[in-house]
Amino acid sequence: MGVAAAFIFVAQAVDFPVIGGTGHLLGFTLAAVLVGPYAAAVVMAAVLIVQCFIFQDGGLTALGANIFNMSFVGTAGGYFIYLGLKKLRPRHRRGSGLFLVGLAAWSSVVIAAIFYSVELAASGAFPFKILLSSMVLIHAIIGIAEAVITCLVVGFILKVRPDLIYGVGKYKP
Fold first, then answer.
1. Planar angle of CA 160, 87, 81, nearest 5 degrees
2. φ, ψ at 27 (rounded to 5°)
3. What separation in angstroms does the CA of 137 have from each of 30, 59, 99?
4. How far is it, in rounded angstroms, from Cα 69 to Cα 19?
5. pLDDT digits (tens, 9 = 90+) for 115-138
């Protein structure tokens, strides 16, 4: 859990350009695939708390919403989407597992953006339609990078230490 948290913390510091701003790895699904959905929620909460209190990133007043959206919605969404897709995959389609991890990673980013949009619109800060369309568009693009990075990391770990993936080897769910 500590290594996953450290990797996600550092990876989140690397920004890439996205329509009129920047994006970064979020890491929900990556954490969930590595350590399981429950431990991943703790990992993401720890990363967000350190970012908030030590690096003053994310804001104290938004910490609860960030933990809900990233630790619970993001990790559970990504992990359970991955499990659902895995069950739908034909058994003879070997090698599609990484694609499914990537699709789940992308989906988790978009779902978390939708939840964020609903929460922010409920506060009255912005009109829901404008907020939702802009957040989903930007996070759909960020989700592509999220999917690629998640696939690369999971693919690498599967090659060198598959026992470190939750549900593979000795860590069966």
1. 80
2. 85, 10
3. 22, 24, 21
4. 22
5. 999 998 998 888 999 889 888 998
Structural tokens at position 45 = 């909460």
Cα 71-133-60 angle, rounded to 5 deg: 35
The single-letter code of the amino acid at 74 is: G
**Mind giving me the DSSP string for 121-140?**
HHTTSS-HHHHHHHHHHHHH
The candidate with the shortest Cα–Cα distance to 18, out of 136, 138, 135, is 138
58: left (phi over 0), alpha (psi -120 to 50) or beta: left
pLDDT in tens, 83-104: 998 888 766 555 668 999 999 9
Helix (H/G/I), strand (E/B), else coil: 18:
strand
C-beta pairs of 6-10 under 8 Å, 24+ apart in sequence: 7/153, 8/43, 8/44, 8/47, 9/47, 9/50, 9/51
Q: Tell me what pLDDT residue 93 has.
A: 58
Q: Which residues does residue 15 pair with via DSSP β-bridges, in sequence order?
A: 24
DSSP annotation string for 81-114: HHHHHHHHS-TT-TT-HHHHHHHHHHHHHHHHHH
CA distances (Å), origin 91, targets 88, 95, 99, 169: 9, 10, 14, 19
